[in-house]
Amino acid sequence: MVLLIQMRVVFQLPATIQGAFCWTMVGTLAWMTMSLVVPQTTKHDLWYVIYSCILMLYLLPMNSSTRSTTRVAPLLFTLFRLPAILIVDRIYLVFFSNLPFLVVISWRAAVEDFDLSYGGRTAAVGMECLHIAVLVALAVALQDYLAGRVELEMESCNTATQLTAASSLLQLTCDAVVELDGDLRLTKHSKELSAMLLRDTSSLSASLKGVRFIDLVASSDTAAALSKLTNFRSRSCSSVISGASEGMGAHAFHTRLVDSCATKLQTEVLQVMYTKRDGSTCHLVGLRDFTDTKPYTGITSQTTGFESEADASADSLSVGQQLSEASQVPVQHGRGTLFLEIDVDGLQITAASSSLVDLVGAPTSEVFPAAQTIQLLERIHSDGRMRLERGERPPAKVFSYDEMPAQLRATSTESIWGTMQVLQAQSGLNVLMAFQAGASGEGRDAIECRVKKRAF
User: Which tens digit of pLDDT belongs to each residue from 334-367?
Assistant: First the structure.
């Protein structure tokens, strides 16, 4: 009402208001009041359709004269029709609900004489066409904006949920969980990592916030660990840009951290890379010391070049350049099978088949010239010893191998294949080898030993 009075003063309109105009205003206020009393009504597009029809009544001859129509139409558009598109779900309703405005203006322009000071009939019809185009365009833009915003919020919520789940899982399985920024620096202090590295937490200077993760790694492993971290980041970023899902997820590798006593800890690193809403890259890293336990992942330490003793019980062992496929066919020891019992602690042959009695007491390195074979024997023996120390039975695993170089005679090196397993002897744990000898291996450019595990 106050706005209406101000309009009549500004535009020098008659002070009296027609009865039809008053009833139209009453209907408008009643319909708008109902939306405040019962807010659920504005959630339906029917409310917008009825609201547009009520506003259209202001343009009828009973409510506005020919002269005032050219002023009422822009005011209706600015104050009522434009804000109303916020509650519409269907875009086509914006067009069809505002189409009666164009019909009324066109009809009055055809049968009445419009004031030329406002552009005449053409300007009135053209202005209404512009109003409809603006309303439809804004409705489309608003819907796209709201849809994009909802999608972005859902994606952010899903990312936060996945990050929380990954963090909870890492905290459950790892000794310490830290967050690294794009420069691989710790974003905040970690009490768990500080305790893991035996650092003094009493002083503020001992805080790990801002420390580069690479600075905690052994100097000999720094380059390899940095390569692992950055290569995974580059591969993940390229997958995000291309829209591919490959390369995303967790990444694991082994390295060594150095504590305050200069002790190198064999550490399993579980890395998850994610991108924040501001576009910055962060890394969620779980750290687990597996010096005295087994790593969760079955990988060897490609980062540092070392292998933990616990890796000896992995499903596949490789001491050569290529790992052979595991066979499900049990090994049969037939005629021609030879046996050797090896004392790994003493590194000598303790028992042998009758045809190999000359090897009893010989050093292991003389019978097996390849250094990989000695390492393999030590790993299998170490796995069995660790189980005994934990009060468990020796592992019931049988490892098969082929093309293993062995010097069974003083004059030549032969290639043997067969099986090996841990043997409980009175003096302790030994390794029993059952094999058959093949052709001479002299003159080979490279000797490869491939090992695989069999389960009976």
Answer: 567 888 899 888 888 988 888 888 888 888 888 8
Pair of tokens at residue 363: 């050093």
Kindly report, residue by residue over 128-168, the tens digit of the pLDDT. Answer: 899 999 999 999 999 899 888 888 888 778 777 777 887 88
Confirm if 285 and 171 have CB atoms less than 8 A apart. Answer: no
CA angle at 183 for the pair 179 and 189, rounded to the nearest 5°:
35
User: For the segment 40-78, what is each residue's pLDDT rounded down to a tens digit?
Assistant: 766 678 888 888 888 888 888 887 777 777 778 888 888
Mapping DSSP onto H, E and C, the string for the chain reads: CHHHHHHHHHCCCCCCCCHHHHHHHHHHHHHHHHHHHCHHHHHCHHHHHHHHHHHHHHHCCCCCCHHHHHHHHHHHHHHHHHHHHHHCCCHHHHHHHHHHHHHHHHHHHHHCCCCHHHCHHHHHHHHHHHHHHHHHHHHHHHHHHHHHHHHHHHHHHHHHHHHHHHHHHHHHHCCEEEEECCCCEECCCCHHHHHHCCCCCCCHHHCCCCCEHHHHECHHHHHHHHHHHHHHHHHHHHHHHHCCCCCCCEEEEEEEEECCCCCEEEEEEEEEEEECCCCCEEEEEEEEECCCCCCCCCCCCCCCCCCCHHHHHCCCCECCCCCCCCCCCCCCCCCCCEEEEEECCCCEEEEECHHHHHHCCCEHHHHCCCHHHHHHHHHHHHHHHHHHHCCCCCCCCEEEEEEEEEEEECCEEEEEEEEEEEEEECCEEEEEEEEEEEEECCCCCCCCCEEEEECC
State the pTM of this model: 0.42
Distances in Å between the Cα of 390 and the Cα atoms of 295, 296, 297, 353 are 17, 19, 21, 33
Other CB atoms closer than 10 Å to residue 8's CB: what's the count?
A: 15
Return the CA Rg of the chain: 41
Q: Quote the tokens at residue 272.
A: 């998850």
